[in-house]
Amino acid sequence: MRLVALAAIAVVLIVIIAAIVVNCSKPASSTASQSAAAANDTASSAAAEIAAPAESAEAADASETSAETPAAEANTASAQIPVVDAEPGDVSYTVAQAAKLKYRDADFAVNPARTDWNYDTPNGHKTIYLTLDDGPSANTERVLDILDQYNCKATFFVTGQNPDYFPWIKEAYDRGHTIGLHSYSHDYESCYSSTEGFWNEFDEIGQVVKDQIGYVPCFIRFPGGASNTISADYSQGIMTELANQAHERGYQYYDWSLSCGDGSVHTADELVYYGCEPTDEENVIYLAHDGSAKETTAEALPAIIEYYQSQGYTFEAIDRSTMVFQHDIAN
Ligand SMILES: [Zn+2]
Q1: Is the Cβ–Cβ distance between 104 and 75 less than 8 Å?
Q2: What is the pTM assigned to this prediction?
Q3: What is the pLDDT of residue 88?
Q4: 185 C-alpha vs ligand 1 centroid, how far in Å?
Q5: So what's the pLDDT on residue 264?
Q6: Residue 80 has what pLDDT?
Q7: Which CATH class is domain 111-315?
Q8: How many CB atoms lie within 10 A of CB 62?
């Protein structure tokens, strides 16, 4: 028995060392972006006024790179999560998932020095990156319980529209999900009238998230997606500017390749019908919402999850190794 135990420990150590070697040899990402037919989440526009101007971008950046928190101290390139080429169920895959959770504080913090994004390489197995926009809200608890029930991880692009539910940001994070930013108010005029206004919105929701989980995450989603056609009504050309500035500030934006269609009002049955779409994509970024008006999404979610699991997909949370999927910008 002792020999078996020693052998098992040796295998795990070899896997970890191999993972570190693989990660160190990972090539820098290209700048190619992907296009997609864009379904905008324009219906998710319940707006609230910004309560107060957020701290300046410079101040936000400085706080992220200072040593004021343990997460910030460890926020270096050496804290990158190992990338393991393995299938769900393999020992090395399990080790990699555990490492993701252990190091994500340092790894997922916004950091302008990090440019190691993956623009072109799927992760090697069928994966749905379910993204839930516009929460937290009264629906978030139910969504989290469903995700637990089906052993799914997801990514929550949060807003500040429902302050009473901010503690659910921490709850989602503690249950192993990824937190991303989606503006404070989700008000298109506030977000897209000027770049300064946009970054005030993201500084503000970034601070909300930092209060909950200890750091400002690097993952963002534009209200309406990068392909939204609304921003041009407020400031022509702003999406190109914002996309460039996002990268300069250490953020990465993710759009989506599939959606259940809950940007518009639908019954749960309709969402299951629209949302269970056959796909041959190995990695899918999937759009759904957990905003306050999205009860039918929570109702439809189990059937949608069961469908994709039956097709061999695993539900995982976005991390820095996740292949970036971006729509063509519509200015
Ligand atoms: Zn939204």
Answers
A1: no
A2: 0.75
A3: 72
A4: 10
A5: 93
A6: 54
A7: alpha beta
A8: 12
Q: How far is the CA of 74 from the centre of ligand 1 (A)?
A: 31
Distance from Cα 157 to the centre of ligand 1, integer Å: 8
Residue numbers in the chain where pLDDT is lower than 50: 1, 3-4, 6, 11-13, 15-79
Distance (Å) from CA 298 to ligand 1 centroid: 16
Using the mean position of ligand 1's atoms as its centre, give its distance from the Cα of residue 166 in Å: 16
Contact between 213 and 176 (Cβ < 8 Å)? no
How far is the C-alpha of 84 from the C-alpha of 94, rounded, in Å? 10
d(CA 219, CA 177): 13
Nearest to 30 by CA among 324, 327, 329, 254: 324
- Ligand 1 centre to CA of 112 (Å) is 25
Q: What is the pLDDT of residue 83?
A: 57
Ligand 1 center–CA 263 separation, angstroms: 8
Buried-state track 146-155, b at ≥16 Cβ within 10 A, e below 16: bbeeeebbbb
Q: Assign 3-class secondary structure to 57-104.
A: HHHHHHHHHCCCCHHHHCCCHHHCCCCCCCCCCCHHHHHHHHHHHHHH
What is the model's pLDDT at position 143? 98
Which H/E stretch holds residue 285?
Answer: strand 283-289
Q: Which of 220, 212, 137 is nearest to 174 (CA)?
A: 212
133 Cα–ligand 1 center, Å: 5
* Residue 41 Cα to ligand 1 middle (Å): 6
45, with CB counted inside 10 A (0-12, 13-18, 19+), is middle
Query: If you measure from the C-alpha of residue 221 to the centroid of ligand 1, how many angstroms do you get, rounded to a whole number?
Result: 8
- What is residue 81's predicted lDDT score, i.e. its pLDDT? 54
Question: What distance in angstroms lies between residue 284's CA and the mean position of ligand 1's atoms?
Answer: 18
- Cα–ligand 1 centroid distance for 30 (angstroms): 28
Q: Ligand 1 is a single-atom ion; what residues have CB below 5 A from it?
A: 41, 44, 133-134
